[in-house]
Design goal:
The protein is α/β, with parallel strands linked by helices. 46% of the residues lie in helices and 14% in strands. It folds into three domains: 16-274, Rossmann fold (3-Layer(aba) Sandwich); 310-400, Anticodon-binding domain of a subclass of class I aminoacyl-tRNA synthetases (Four Helix Bundle (Hemerythrin (Met), subunit A)); 404-478, no CATH class.
């Protein structure tokens, strides 16, 4: 398996530190506002990596933090005349709900910054003792120029770095490049050896990754906007405190853009996840994101999402129809076949999800062919392949299918208008009744009784079910 390491700016063979065990850290959200499509892109991407590592047989320990102490959270609390705890709790719950709706797995460990203050203070003490940090009037800063390798991740020579929008300025600092490890805050702060204050953002991830994954980890991932200064500063403070290499593989996903600009809260051009879910299902959003390579920018548009919706529907329809024919019981255990090999080949090449989806599309085509030819063994084979591969990429087939109860409720509203159904037919329910109705309609089509065929289609339109006819097969799906 090869991954693109931002640190070396090249593809590298993935070799974990400890045999089959993988430690993976992803920078989580600062919970002060609604999560948007940019967050969806980030966390779906790394959810996909987490799932694929496990699919490949690795024993993964995945940590994704929650920043619940931050200037933005305090600002929001002041605006609403409430506490930082109230704000962070509210927006964490909104974030967690959004991730659940997107079928993003919970990480193995989800630490909160406010619960890891002791580890942060311990690291800062070590940095002060080693003269990599200094305290002035309750603030603690990291001496950037003392760490000779500063800039090695972002490829920015230290002499070229200047204070600006991404580097905090202060008259207290020894050097304009030094960044805060601890900020004095007598009103909202926590007790520390330097008085009441709050941690700097960068030290939070260094502390949480060390506490839960160790001093050296395999994978650290996040959005490309975190390369500098956040990840650069993590490297500096972690390696100076721990005395060893911090991360072996740095992975970064590209931005979501609108009109070629990065989607962000600061630019006020973001679309919330809940807004997206009001118009598109979770599988469509995941399909939209994974159609693009994770390192490339993704341009948001309704046209692109509509295309993703159509693409996912094609896969969903094939899966639904093949499972209707085969059922879920007694499906073969497919672990070695051409489709699995091609899927792994694509994913092992720096997570080439677009090629992996192409493999799934081909399997869907073959599944439809097996169903139309009534080749049950082949249909069972492709049902197993489709379930295995869509699950590996984090798609949730179950969310898309109407339950027996939901389908029955819809059919009950149109059964009185289907005079061709016998009393015995009407005793059927759910999927079996649906199959019977389609069977009658197909017979009507063969007899060129277009009035009956069209009437059934029109009635189905009224309950948001669409029929798709091919030469030998009719499938149905929810609109």
């Amino acid at each position: 398996m090869k991954l693109f390491n931002t640190f070396s700016n090249s593809l590298e063979e993935f070799e974990p530190i400890d045999g089959n065990k993988v430690s993976m850290y992803v920078c989580g959200p600062t919970v002060y506002d609604y999560p948007h499509l940019g967050h969806a892109r980030c966390y779906i991407t790394w959810d996909m990596l987490y799932r694929y590592l496990k699919f490949s047989g690795y024993d993964v320990k995945y940590c994704r933090n929650i920043t619940d102490v931050d200037d933005k959270i305090l600002k929001k609390a002041k605006e609403e005349n409430t506490t930082a705890e109230v704000i962070s709790k509210r927006y964490y719950e909104i974030f967690a709900d959004a991730m659940n709706k997107l079928n993003v797995l919970k990480p193995d460990i989800e630490p909160f910054a406010t619960k890891t203050l002791g580890e942060m203070i311990s690291i800062i003490k070590d940095l002060i003792n080693n003269e990599y940090a200094y305290e002035i009037d309750g603030d603690v800063y990291f001496r950037v120029k003392k760490f000779k390798d500063y800039g090695k991740l972002s490829k920015q020579p230290i002499e070229d770095l200047v204070a600006g929008a991404r580097v905090e300025t202060s008259d207290k600092k020894e050097d304009v490049l030094d960044f805060a490890l601890w900020k004095k805050d007598e009103e909202f702060g926590y007790n520390s050896p330097w008085g009441k204050g709050r941690p700097g953002w960068h030290i939070e991830c260094s502390a949480m990754s060390r506490k839960y994954l160790g001093k050296q980890i395999d994978i650290h991932a996040g959005g490309a906007d975190l390369i500098f200064p956040h990840h650069e500063n993590e490297i500096a403070q972690s390696e100076c405190a721990n005395g060893c290499k911090f991360v072996n593989y740095w992975l970064h996903n590209g931005f979501v853009t609108i009109n070629k600009e990065k989607m962000s809260k600061s630019l006020k051009n973001f679309v919330t996840i809940n807004d997206m879910l009001a118009n598109y299902d979770a599988n469509t959003i995941r399909f939209f994101i994974l159609t693009n390579h994770y390192r490339m920018p993704v341009e948001f548009s309704s046209e692109a999402l509509d295309g993703a919706k159509s693409g996912w529907k094609r896969i969903q329809t094939a899966v639904s129809e093949v499972l209707r024919i085969t059922g879920r019981d007694n499906l073969p255990d497919i672990s070695e076949c051409e489709e699995i090999a091609l899927f792994k080949e694509a994913m092992d090449n720096d997570l080439n999800t677009s090629k992996a989806l192409a493999v799934i599309f081909d399997a869907a085509t073959n599944a439809n062919k097996a169903v139309s030819e009534k080749n049950i063994s082949q249909a069972q084979k492709y049902a197993s392949i489709l379930l295995k591969l869509t699950n590996a990429m984090g798609f949730n087939i179950e969310k898309q299918q109407l339950t027996e109860e939901e389908l029955q409720k819809r059919l009950d509203t149109i059964i009185p208008e289907m005079e061709f159904l016998s009393d015995e037919d009407k005793e059927l329910s759910g999927y079996k009744l649906m199959d019977k109705i389609i069977e009658y309609r197909n017979n009507a089509r063969k007899e060129k009784n277009w009035a009956v065929a069209d009437k059934v289609r029109t009635l189905f339109d009224g309950i948001s079910i669409v029929l798709k006819d091919s030469k030998d097969l009719t499938v149905w799906e929810e609109k």
